[in-house]
């Protein structure tokens, strides 16, 4: 199932995205937050995920590009939305 695109706020310096941030608030009770920071020494991007349950990642994840990090963030978001959809479908069916 396809969910809406995430809305990222990018901070750009010298044509390089140095920081990107996305926050999702669903009905005031589910919050998901993603942050991507550029590590200039290694030229890598670090993904931080905040939220409850499987959204929260205690270990940061490192990627070669900001797009790769954003794709993983979207996958995490989609997985959580799919879980919510299944619960809602179950509640509606009963």
Put the structure in a nutshell.
The chain is α+β, with helices and mostly antiparallel strands.
Short key terms for the protein model shown above:
elongated; 5-stranded antiparallel beta sheet; 94 residues; 5 strands; 1 helix; alpha+beta
Description:
The protein has one helix spanning 66-93; strands at 9-13, 16-26, 30-39, 44-50, 61-63. By secondary structure, it is of the alpha+beta class. It has one domain. Strand 1 (9-13) and strand 2 form a beta hairpin.
Secondary structure category: alpha+beta
Listing every helix as H and every strand as E from the N terminus to the C terminus, the arrangement reads EEEEEH
Q: Segments where pLDDT lies below 50 for 5+ residues?
A: none
Beta strands, count: 5
How widely separated are the two ends?
Answer: 22 Å
Proportion of β residues? 35-45%
Number of domains: 1
Q: Helix count?
A: 1
Helix content: 25-40%
Which SSEs are present, and which pair or pack?
Layout: E1 9-13, E2 16-26, E3 30-39, E4 44-50, E5 61-63, H1 66-93
Antiparallel strand pairs: 1-2, 2-3, 3-4, 4-5
């Amino acid at each position: 199932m396809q969910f809406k695109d995430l809305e990222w706020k990018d901070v750009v310096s010298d044509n390089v995205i140095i920081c990107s941030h996305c926050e999702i608030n669903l009905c005031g009770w589910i919050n998901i937050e993603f942050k991507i920071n550029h590590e200039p020494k290694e030229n890598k991007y670090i993904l931080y995920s905040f939220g409850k349950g499987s959204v929260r990642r205690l270990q940061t994840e490192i990627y070669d590009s900001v797009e790769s990090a954003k794709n993983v963030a979207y996958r995490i978001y989609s997985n959580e939305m799919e879980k919510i959809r299944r619960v809602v479908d179950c509640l509606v069916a009963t």
